[in-house]
Write a structure and sequence with these properties.
Helix content of chain B: 25-40%
Radius of gyration of chain D: 40 Å
Oligomer: heterotetramer
Strand content of chain D: 15-25%
Largest sheet of chain B: 7 strands, mixed
Strand content of chain B: 15-25%
Number of helices of chain D: 33
Structural class of chain B: alpha/beta
Largest sheet of chain D: 7 strands, mixed
Distance between the termini of chain B: 54 Å
Chains: A alpha/beta, B alpha/beta, C alpha/beta, D alpha/beta
Order of helices and strands of chain B: EHEEEEEHHEEEHHHHEEHHH
Number of helices of chain B: 10
């Protein structure tokens, strides 16, 4: 791992909680690593595991899937499905040789700008520790 | 011109050749014997039943880039793929060699497929005659033989203390070092094979285009691509453009007439929608359309398709079924 | 060969055909090699006389029902294959009224290849606890009390104990051999999409390159689409012409689905599959 | 071919300060399909928008990318801009260069610029796949729902209703008014709160456009702006509100009294109540919290709380009537019941359980003493005759229930006198025969025919006599044998025979040394009877241990073991009978064996014995009491279990024979009276259903709702009254040992009851209500309403002051909350407006206010300022002075401000001027000293410690939304923070809107507000509702899912995952089933898209291609 290594992170954020939470981080001027590129989706339940696989195939070092906290989904149940889908995908990716730490599922509410900034920083650090994917 | 070479000399010769050329030879990969470029001569399997996949992949790789296009400062640049080095295919069986010769028909007719042609030109084929027949083999019924030297540049035949070297072409001769002894002993007898009644098959099959036979046979067909991909003479491919951030690659990959979308046209029309039509295409192509255009049946009798088919669809059985249908028809 | 059982099968097939209960019977016949067996579609009683059943009858014939939708068909179903029936019933792909299920008691099937039959029982049979099909209209042969051991996933656990790097290397090598013949998909009773994701152009999930990277994506998505759906017939692994150990993928997901969601495919046609449902209180640690 | 224009916003220096815009322009210009790039100082400004429109025309753009702030900010603005230039508004994509880039990566120009290029490239890639979408227009239901009947909700309701639209106002309490109704005066004008609020409440109650749903809660909300469907649960008041006159007669007779919530626990109210005199609606509510634990624990479901409540009021006759609603055996069960009710009694968690059994007996004794009036026979309304075989407790209970339902019932008893085990099994000293006789007579008087000396041999015969159903309650009448050597010796007696003889007055030959074998109640009865018959020594040998906490304990009850020992019984525990020793064929003694364990870990009887020296006990008589069983030969046609008991359905008690039911010991094996009664009652339900031909299983076993929490606050421990007994020395005859309570004791004991379920269902209210509006069987009603807009004004509540024990809250009675002080000051309050100390009723002279209790401190409550406390403390200090000029108030504050204009600050000054001591500081401790409180702490301004002696300490507790309110917010899909305050759509510009269109918020549910602010917000929310209602129609989001039927496999997994029931099966002409999406129900979440493996579902606006294009561009 070189000191200059900058992991490439793609984040899928639900419009109602996590994307708003990321906006809140911006509005509150909280700094976090620049590595993440955010893709807006209506609900974390819209995030197809295939998108995540494509991200990794395209060279992403880490993928973040983020939605409302369980029980708070704007669409009532979307994040429960997200949780099932990605709990399984994480195990499977790890089995195939992509460390499960590279796929994060996080619940971030619209008011949790701070949490969002912190988790991006934490995720980036962890990815830097894992080093580039070979 | 028959020469003799001891096993040790053969290895030394191949080592010499490997310095300047790529050598593609049967090697052992995860329990399977496959034709692959070797890095050391020791990797070569000299004693093997036929490989699961034929050696056609060297001339028509499963996937290759035909050319790429890039936009650079407003300029559009096209970069065709080229063949970098001379190569040798070593250890090819006479049946597979004949398969290459059959592929030459469609690929080398004018206008020729330049990438194929270049590979073909820059590759020397060293064959290895069969000392034993496998249960699936029927090359003699398809116009070839276990010791057929017709389609190789050099043919090796294993004898007790080494190999008899038959130099077939000038290209083959060019590879030879000087000072090898001439071979004067008697050639070993080739193994005997079961025969398949291929006579008259081309005219027989023509009659049964609309016969329910095909739908019945297709009942159990899974329509996977195994038969086509193991076949030394199947040469269908698909071409797709890959755009990626300002660059486009045109890629060619194997494809098979058994695929559901194989004959789908741009407007959405598909001339072969049923399973029977698709399966019929495979046999009509091999036994009728190819012979009509290139005068040879597009089967070399290697028996791979019948052996690999998960549901035991076997070209030999199809041929004899067609004969029976013909007999029944003429009898009635 | 259990001739008595075979006579029962032929008799049943004959009467089903003669009485017009079904249009055809999907069963097994002896293959051209005289050793192994292959699927047979019998449409008349004379063809029914070719039906056999023995320990080479590995094919999961349930797959063929998908190609005969709308027709009344009978199908021979081993205990393991019956899970595919339940899967397809759950996914509304077959009409129970249109399918006559001839359940057969199965002593386990052996490893075979063309022209060759071994004495080794297939691995999946060694851990098969089903003594009779889960669903059938008639059960022929005996319900067997077999000595099977419960699946322990020892090979999967071993792989999990390896480092992630060595697993990555392992699968890279395996997938590099894949020739994208799609036999694994074609034989799978759970694969029936009108247009497979691998053949879709818009969106383009996987390209046509027969190359490690795309092969990996192909196999990853294929297996993931079978998560909670694979019924373990292992036909995909059997038909793979380049011997990729696909059961290591399918059974990994089977194991995880069992652990995470307490679900196994094909046991109950009514139970909602894992991705159709959820429990609010499960996996509280994920994402918090 | 897409012609994409890219517009980059500087946002002043907000974006351009961190992102090198020229560099972005250069990079973006090279992207395929991009034909135009430009930048603007402020793209959202009029010139910026005009520039976009010009460029669209000039460069023939068909796609637009704007790099600016978050799409959540201006997407709608820019869609309008693009549409203004004739382009479909959905052919726009926004790159979030501000919130997601420049603002979070300041001073990292290189990285931020590179990221900005990526974000724009991503947007360009996506926009190429964008498709034109057309929003649909949907109608509006012009009716509003207001949730919360506090002042904010009241104002919103009135404003909407006055504008001519219908309003449904939902309030979960019995009355509207909220916390404002509890206030005495309001700051800073000192208006009387009730005076200004009551007229508004009355208007709400009478407004033709307002449908007031009090005591109701919103359960579920579906739909969308303009078209919500709301499920509202109208909690049952057990009073028919439409007819209640509010006369209050019910409350007068109600025996249950509890703390008044409205008066902040400083006053009392009844279980049936109106929270305060001005309540709207002015209707009574009966407060029921479920079943009390005693009633849940009782196998027969006897409502103990009901009769205890009435005993506490001295209404003994009425109390007995409550019991007789369930069963007839007050005297019997009041003596012999094993009383599981007492075990679960909540009072036991304070000190000891209420003596429920003794109280039950008291009622019977009272009636017997006073002389029972003959019962009125029940009218026969049913034709079908029912036969009961066996007149034990099970049979009689069954008969009792059936006869009261109008069935002709006949009980067959083979013995000469009815009563079964009650008569022959339990000795006189525990259960006098007179008591049994009285209760059986009562049953007879109701109309049950009892045929004694009548043995029934087979059931066929009974049916032949014209009975339509039979209950088999013949008990377990045969004693188990020991199965050891010499069991046929003379001097061996079986306990059941023994007791029967004793109880029927027959002479029993008993030796001098009696050994009883067995550890249950029958063994103890046999032993105690032996003592009374004059045996010199009575020994008891049992397998079990005397340690009553062990799993292997004796089965007899604690008290009877103790009583027996008091009477001289010698117990030999942990021994099993090995051999009976004989002399000349007569019993000589018992050889025993050591028993090491009786029951296994599952509780099953599996005794283990050990070799070793075990005592031999001399005896001339051995009474065997090791259990009873059914006579195996009896009723052969009835299927039995291997142990010999009758096999029945465990819920319905049906036997294998149609129309025959069984219960009691004959089914369960030997058990106690109350379980037999329970079985009889259960069988009565089955028989009634059987005879009426309705489903016998449905709704059984009944699920009862036990009260969740029982408040024990303020309960002073008071010991249970012991049962007076006959002194052991006087117990030689068969006189009853327990003597029963007298009236005074009974009332005092009954008053110990905590009234767990609040309403005791004594039904006294029913009797006095002239309007006949009490309906105890009333069920909660759920109604569905359609509304177009919703106002959420659910408010907040001050933190519970008792949780602040550091300030003495909950520790000292004279530490009260500010809201309690309001109630004390209110003329309508519990003290009639007199401010007194709760502890002794004295007038407080020194009052200390502690501010910011639970506010501004994350550790003890909330991290925020509750805003209203400074003002109300000043108000209360002023008012205290007005009530009693000699009162002196100290206000210990953190910061003191009057935010609300000059009039507010003047008010604070006024408080100080009248002599209130303001001190900025921190409280270290509140202690009690010499009957007063001592408040000590630190003065921050002088840096000195202070000790203030105080008569009253008032805690100014901060506000917090109700903790259980999150469920409602989740149903509404509106966001809230970790303290359950609602989130506004924008904290500054959209303060009363939420992210959900059509749902508006007001009042303390959003943040602490005072009265004028709540009124203003309620009005503002109403204005948004009216704005919505003034539109002709609403544009519906066009981003919904559609199915490509060619790719659909019809598996309908999508239907299973859709949270909105928007997906249905559709059958095509070719017979294929495919999914079909109802666009008006689809909300565009995309869960179905992911569930669809074949890729047959597309979410418009978030199609796979669009998202994938973004992925591929990165």
């Amino acid at each position: 791992m070189s000191a200059g290594y900058q992991p490439k992170v793609i984040g899928f954020l639900c419009n109602w909680c996590s994307y708003a939470g990321a906006d809140m981080a911006g509005t509150s001027r909280m700094c976090y690593p620049q590595n993440i590129r955010i893709i807006r989706v209506p609900c974390s339940g819209r995030v197809d595991p295939l998108f995540v696989l494509k991200c990794f195939q395209r060279g992403a070092d880490g993928v973040l899937v983020s939605g409302c906290h369980p029980g708070d989904c704007h669409y009532t149940e979307g994040n429960y499905h997200t949780r099932r889908r990605f709990a399984l995908l994480r195990e499977f990716l790890d089995y195939l040789g992509i460390e499960k730490e590279r796929l994060r599922v996080e619940w971030v509410s619209a008011s949790e700008g701070q949490r969002f900034a912190e988790l991006v920083a934490d995720f980036t650090t962890e990815l830097a520790r894992l080093g580039p994917r070979s | 011109m028959n020469l003799f070479i001891s096993k040790d000399d053969l290895i030394r010769w191949l080592e010499l050749l490997l310095r300047e050329r790529i050598i593609i030879a049967p090697i052992r990969v995860q329990g399977q014997t496959m034709f692959q470029p070797i890095s050391k001569v020791e990797e070569i399997m000299f004693d093997f039943d036929n490989t699961a996949l034929s050696s056609k992949g060297w001339f028509l790789p499963p996937t290759e880039t035909l050319f790429s296009v890039r936009r650079d400062d407003g300029q559009i640049k096209l970069m065709p793929a080229t063949v970098e080095r001379d190569a040798i295919i070593f250890g090819i069986r006479p049946c597979d060699a004949r398969g290459i010769a059959l592929m030459d028909g469609p690929f080398l007719q004018v206008p020729s497929d330049t990438l194929y042609q270049e590979r073909r030109n820059r590759t020397t084929i060293i064959g290895l005659a069969c000392r034993q027949a496998q249960p699936e083999c029927f090359c003699t019924s398809m116009g070839s033989a276990p010791d057929d030297p017709s389609h190789v540049d050099i043919l090796l035949t294993e004898v007790k203390d080494g190999y008899i070297v038959q130099v077939v072409t000038e290209k083959g001769k060019a590879l030879l070092p000087k000072g090898w002894a001439k071979y004067k002993r008697k050639m070993p007898t080739p193994p005997q094979l079961k025969t398949v009644p291929t006579k008259g098959i081309v005219s027989a099959i023509r009659e049964f285009f609309n016969d329910p036979y095909w739908e019945r046979l297709a009942d159990r067909c899974l329509h996977c691509n195994i038969c086509a991909y193991v076949c030394p003479t199947c040469y269908c491919f698909d071409v797709r453009d890959y755009p990626d951030k300002g660059k486009v690659e045109r890629v060619r990959s194997w494809e098979s007439c058994q695929s559901p979308g194989f004959s789908l046209t741009a407007g959405g029309y598909d001339p072969r929608t049923t399973k029977g039509e698709r399966l019929r295409q495979r046999f009509y192509h091999k036994l009728l359309y190819f012979p009509e255009r290139f005068q040879e049946v597009a089967c070399v009798g290697c028996g791979r398709c019948g052996k690999a088919c998960p549901v035991n669809i076997d070209i030999r059985e199809v041929i004899s079924d067609l004969h029976q249908l013909a007999e029944a028809k003429s009898g009635s | 060969m259990d001739m008595e059982l075979i006579q029962q099968i032929r008799g049943k097939a004959r009467s089903l055909l003669e009485e017009g209960t079904v249009e055809g019977v999907i069963g097994y016949e002896r293959a051209g090699d005289g050793v192994t067996s292959r699927p047979l579609f019998a449409y008349d009683s004379s063809a029914a006389e070719r039906l056999i059943f023995d320990d080479t009858c590995t094919h999961n014939l349930v797959k063929y029902l998908l190609g005969k939708r709308g027709k009344k068909m009978a199908v021979m179903v081993k205990p393991c294959d019956s899970r595919a029936i339940n899967l397809l019933l759950n996914e509304r792909q077959i009409d129970r009224d249109k399918v006559f299920i001839i359940g057969v008691g199965c002593p386990g099937v052996v490893e075979t290849e063309w022209n060759h039959k071994s004495e080794t029982l297939q691995a999946r049979c060694r851990s098969c606890l089903l003594t009779k099909p889960l669903v059938y209209d008639v059960l022929l042969g005996r319900e067997l009390a077999r000595k099977a051991e419960e699946e322990t996933y020892s090979d999967i656990l071993e792989a999990e104990a390896e480092s992630v790097v060595s697993r990555r290397e392992f699968w890279r090598e395996q997938f590099s051999r894949c020739i994208r013949c799609y036999a694994c998909r074609q034989v799978c009773p759970g694969c029936y999409c009108p247009v497979c994701f691998a053949e879709q152009l818009e969106p383009l999930w996987v390209g046509i390159r027969i190359a490690p990277e795309e092969n990996t994506l192909w196999q990853t998505i294929r297996t993931f689409h079978l998560a909670g759906r694979c019924i373990g017939c292992n036909e995909c692994e059997r038909v793979c012409p380049v011997d990729i150990p696909l059961s290591l993928l399918n059974r990994k997901l089977e194991k995880d689905v069992k652990e995470l969601f307490a679900f196994q495919a094909g046991l109950d046609p009514e139970e909602p599959p894992p991705f159709a449902t959820f429990r609010k209180e499960e996996m509280p640690e994920l994402g918090e | 071919m897409a012609r994409i224009g890219v517009f980059l916003c500087h946002c002043g220096s907000n974006i351009a300060g961190s992102v090198n815009i020229p560099e972005v322009i250069e990079a973006v210009g090279k992207l395929p399909q991009v034909v135009h790039v430009e930048d603007n100082k402020f793209t959202c400004s009029d010139p910026g928008q005009a520039s976009i429109q010009q460029a669209i025309t000039k460069h023939r753009l068909n796609r637009v990318v704007i790099g600016a702030c978050s799409p959540r900010m201006h997407e709608i603005t820019f869609r309008r801009t693009v549409a203004g230039a004739g382009l479909n508004p959905y052919l726009l994509e926004i790159a979030n260069l501000r919130e997601h880039c420049s603002w979070v990566h300041p001073s990292q120009v290189k990285e931020a610029t590179a990221k900005a290029i990526d974000l724009v490239r991503k947007a360009v890639a996506r926009v190429a796949w964008q498709e034109p979408l057309t929003p649909k227009h949907v109608g509006i239901t012009r009716r509003a729902l207001v949730i919360g009947g506090g002042i904010a909700g009241i104002q919103a309701s009135l404003d909407i209703a006055d504008a001519g639209y219908e309003v449904i106002l939902v309030e979960r309490e019995p009355s509207i008014g909220g916390h404002m109704a509890q206030l005495d005066k309001t700051f800073p004008t000192l208006d009387c709160s009730a005076c200004i609020l009551t007229p508004k409440m009355t208007t709400v109650g009478q407004h033709p456009n307002i449908k007031l749903m009090s005591y109701s809660e919103v359960e579920d909300v579906s739909g969308y702006v303009g078209n919500f469907r709301v499920k509202i649960k109208n909690k049952s008041r057990y009073i028919d509100v439409s007819k209640c006159t509010g006369c209050g007669e019910c409350a007068k007779v109600c025996p249950v009294e509890l703390n008044s919530e409205f008066n902040e626990n400083l006053g009392k109210r009844k279980a049936t109540y109106i929270p305060f005199p001005q309540a709207i609606p002015n209707k009574y509510t009966i407060d029921k919290r479920g079943y009390p634990p005693c009633r849940v624990a009782c196998p027969a479901g006897v409502n103990a709380q009901g009769y205890i409540a009435l005993i506490s009021q001295g209404k003994f006759k009425e109390a007995l009537a409550v019991l007789r609603r369930t069963m007839p055996f007050a005297g019997v069960c009041g003596r012999v019941c094993t009383h599981p009710c007492e075990h679960d009694c909540e009072r036991g968690k304070v000190d000891q359980p209420v003596a429920i059994r003794a109280l039950k007996r008291f009622m019977a004794d009272y009636e017997l003493k006073a002389g029972r009036e003959k019962a009125t026979p029940v009218e026969r309304t049913k034709e079908e005759k029912v036969a009961i075989i066996g007149s034990g407790p099970a049979g009689l209970a069954c008969a009792y229930d059936l006869v009261r339902q109008g069935y002709p019932v006949t009980v067959f008893e083979s013995a000469p006198v009815a009563g079964g085990l009650l008569r022959y099994g339990i000795p006189e000293y525990r259960l006098p025969k007179a008591v049994v006789d009285n209760e059986i007579s009562y049953i007879r008087e109701l109309g049950v025919e009892i045929k004694t000396n009548t043995t029934v041999k087979n059931l066929e015969e009974v049916f032949a006599q014209g009975y339509s159903a039979i209950f088999l309650g013949i008990g377990a009448g045969v004693s188990q044998k020991l199965g050891i050597a010499n069991e046929d010796a003379k001097g061996i007696i079986y306990a059941l025979n023994f007791l029967k003889q004793v109880n029927s007055g027959a002479k029993v030959d008993l030796g001098k040394r009696v050994v009883v074998i067995g550890g249950g109640s029958v063994a103890i009865d046999a032993a105690r009877a032996s003592l009374r018959l004059g045996a010199k020594e009575v020994h008891l040998v049992c397998l079990e241990t005397r340690d009553l906490t062990s799993k292997d304990r004796m089965l007899a009850q604690d008290w009877e073991i103790e009583e027996a020992e008091n009477e001289g019984l010698i117990i030999h525990p942990c021994l099993g009978p090995k051999e009976i020793l004989t002399r000349d064929g007569n019993v000589a003694g018992l050889r025993t064996i050591i028993c090491t364990s009786v029951r296994d870990t599952d509780g099953k009887f599996a005794p283990k014995f050990a070799e070793g020296p075990a005592p031999t006990i001399e005896a001339d008589t051995i009474i065997v009491a090791i259990g009873q069983r059914l006579d195996v030969e009896a009723f052969e046609e009835v299927k039995k279990m291997p142990v010999g008991t009758v096999k029945v359905d465990s819920t319905t008690l049906e036997t294998n024979i149609d129309g025959v039911f069984a219960g009691g010991d004959v089914v369960s094996g030997p058990a106690d009276v109350i379980r037999a009664v329970a079985a009889g009652k259960e069988a009565a339900i089955s028989i009634d259903r059987y005879l009426r031909g309705v489903d016998i299983q449905e709704g059984r076993p009944e699920t009862v709702k036990r009260v969740k929490e029982v408040s024990k606050a303020g309960v002073t421990p008071k010991a249970r009254h012991p049962m007076p007994t006959l002194e052991p020395g006087k117990r030689r005859g068969f006189d009853e040992v327990e003597l029963g309570f007298d009236e005074k004791t009974a009332v005092a004991e009954a008053q110990r009851c905590l009234n767990c379920a609040v309403c005791s269902e004594c039904r006294e209210c029913e009797k006095v209500c002239e309007a006949k509006v009490v309906v105890h069987e009333m069920k909660d009603k759920v109604s569905e309403e359609e509304v177009g807009a919703i106002v959420v004004a659910t408010g907040a509540t001050p933190l519970n002051h008792t949780q602040f024990s550091i300030y003495g809250g909950g520790v000292y009675p004279d530490v009260i909350s500010s809201l309690q002080l309001e109630r004390l000051m209110s003329a309508a309050g519990p003290t009639g407006g007199e401010v007194v100390r709760p502890s002794d009723g004295a007038h407080p002279k020194e009052v200390v206010f502690i501010s910011c209790v639970g506010s501004r401190d994350e550790r003890t409550g909330s991290g925020y300022c509750s805003k209203i406390c400074c003002m109300y403390m000043a108000k209360q200090a002023i008012m205290l002075k007005e009530h009693a000029p000699d009162t002196h108030s100290h206000i210990i504050y953190t910061d003191a401000r009057g935010p609300g204009g000059k009039i507010f600050e003047d008010f604070l000054a006024r408080a100080e001027k009248i002599g209130t001591t303001y001190m900025r500081g921190q409280i270290d401790n509140v202690a009690q000293q010499d009957g007063r409180l001592l408040v000590s702490g630190q003065d921050f301004l002088t840096d000195k410690t202070f000790n203030i002696p105080a008569d009253l300490v008032v805690l100014a507790t901060g506000l917090m939304p109700n903790q259980d309110i999150a469920n409602l917010f989740q149903t509404l899909h509106i966001s809230y923070d970790n303290k359950n305050y609602l989130l506004q759509a924008h904290p500054k510009l959209r303060p009363v809107e939420t992210a959900m269109d059509g749902i508006f918020i007001a009042g303390c549910a959003v943040a602490p507000t005072d009265v004028p602010e709540s009124v203003a917000q309620g009005g503002a929310a109403a204005q948004y509702v009216l704005k919505l209602f003034s539109q002709e129609s609403i544009e519906a989001e066009p981003m919904t899912s559609i199915v490509d039927i060619a790719r659909c496999t019809g598996c309908l997994l999508c239907r299973q995952v859709c949270p909105f029931q928007a997906i249905e099966a559709q059958i095509l002409r070719d017979g294929r089933t495919v999914a079909s999406i109802n666009e008006s129900l689809c909300k565009g979440c995309g869960i179905c898209v992911v569930a669809c493996r074949p890729g047959a579902i597309k979410l418009r606006g978030f199609a796979d291609q669009q998202i994938l294009a973004e992925v591929m561009s990165l």
